[in-house]
Amino acid sequence: MQLPKIHSITKKMLVALVGGFLLLFLLFHMTANLFILRHDDGAWYSAFCHFMGTNWVVKLFEVVLLGVLALHILLTLWLALTNRLARPVRYKQRQRSETHTTSKLMMWTGILIFAFLVMHFCQFYFVKIGWVKGEYMVEVEKLQTDEVNTVQQFSMQQGMSPEDFVSSLEGQLAMYADQMPAEEYESMVQNIANLRGAVPVAGLLSDAVAKGHLSENRKWVRHLDYDQRQMLKKTVPDCGVEPDFYYMSRQLFHNALMVILYLIAFVALFMHLTHAFPSVFQSLGLNNYKYNNFIEICGKIYTWVITLGFAAVPILVYIGL
Fold it and tell me: What is the count of structural domains for the chain?
């Protein structure tokens, strides 16, 4: 098997550079996840997700991040494979090595983390891009068109549902159709047709109020299902309906099995980072006997902060905090 020939040191430096980028992203992602623990009905976390999902700079960064993640996986596999091909015959007797256990398990912890990422993407990122169904939310302001407000206001005043209110207008128009000038009649038909188109949205808002599906600041309609999302995208194309990651996260972490799977992944991440952090400095030639101890201490602090920060969310949500 022939692989492109690039010096092993070069490949290690590429892996280190990509790994360093991912180390920074993990710190950012962990910090954002802690917003889930705020008891503000998702105000902070939803605002963060909304910004991340609508800002074009963030969207560009998202593509870069996915590319870097894929590059990291390919480079590490490439490095492992070329190292193995360089010594096709194994030692007859396994030699003792002073290499740290986490270093020996890097490939296996990496595979476990990759499997976790596939599951994690199915639960969140693939919902965002529409490949998987989830729970959704939309800003109330984006739904309050003139037609929707009219249907809501008059249906409430008359104690009728939005559907019944518009049906009553259609009935009244039919009764007086012969007595109206043609131009006025056509105008009324168009106005009622516009109100008819607003009925599903007005009904959704009324149900949200009745079921308590508005956020505490009444900015968002929450707990929308996939069918409601499709209806809104068709009826109000510019409403910007988006996944309700706060609600989805809290629902997910009420499942004991999911909490266990996430914690297993975080243990694998801990073992992976234990070796990865100092390896970045070593591969880039930034280590030195004068400050190796400092790098090691920073690595341990970083690894524990990242792991405990990630693990805190599923544990605390599961126990009801």
Answer: 2
